[in-house]
Amino acid sequence: MPASEREWVESLARGLAVIKAFSGERPAMTLSEVAVATGLTRATARRFLHTLETLGYVRSDTRTFTLTPRVLELGTSYLSALSLPEIVQPHLEALSRRLDESVSAAVLDGDEIVYVARVPTRQRIISVGITIGTRLPAATTSMGHVLRGDEREWAIADGELDPGLRAIAAPLHGRDGRIIAAINVSTSPSRVSKDELLERHLPALLETAAAIDGDLSAAGL
Fold it and tell me: pLDDT digit string (tens) for 19-71?
């Protein structure tokens, strides 16, 4: 709930709710489906969809509505102001080449992690498609564990999010020592045993995290 009702803009909240109602599972929806997903009346949902369509964030055919690429501007504004992905990306690419595994970076947003950088490999190890901006429950992910402070130096998630996923993560720190993000290496139990994860992947991960910490400090973050 808002801290002060006088500062709460209901129309803005509803408009964002309409945008967030669309997802990978629901890329196109009818007016009725949008109304149900957001808890709005059909008339109210229609007004918001029309406004978003006029602004270029939504397109429609004779029956369904879909988001347009313009919605990416909302996330791009955040990423443009955040130099973290730009600093992290080269390190992730090097780590991925070194281990031949998918590597990612994420930040914490409430009870979820949000991916801000990623280098995937051709091996598909998880049923959930992960891209920049993907949100996953912090409680079931390796990066979520370290971002929540469950383990300070590193953390493993072994099948918690997906039975075919085994991942290990390490935190990234700002100049003041606070944990501001996390990076991880993702693999599968069939590819990498826990012993190998700790003996080979963890040292490389911690080395990369330390290098990133140095660059973040130099950048004043």
Answer: 999 988 889 999 999 999 999 999 999 999 999 999 999 999 988 999 998 88
- Contacts of 51 by beta carbon, 8 Å cutoff, 6+ apart: 15
Whichever domain contains 9, its CATH number is 1.10.10.10
Phi, psi values for residue 94, rounded to 5°: -65, -40
Residue 141: domain span:
82-218
Q: How many domains does the chain have?
A: 2
- DSSP H or E run through 215: helix 202-218
Helices (H) and strands (E) in the chain, counts: 8, 9
- 40 with 139, same domain: the answer is no
pLDDT of residue 121: 86
Reported as half-sphere exposure (CB side, CA atoms, 13 A), residue 203 has a value of 5
Residue 8, classified by CB atoms within 10 Å of its CB into exposed (0-12), middle (13-18) or buried (19+), is exposed
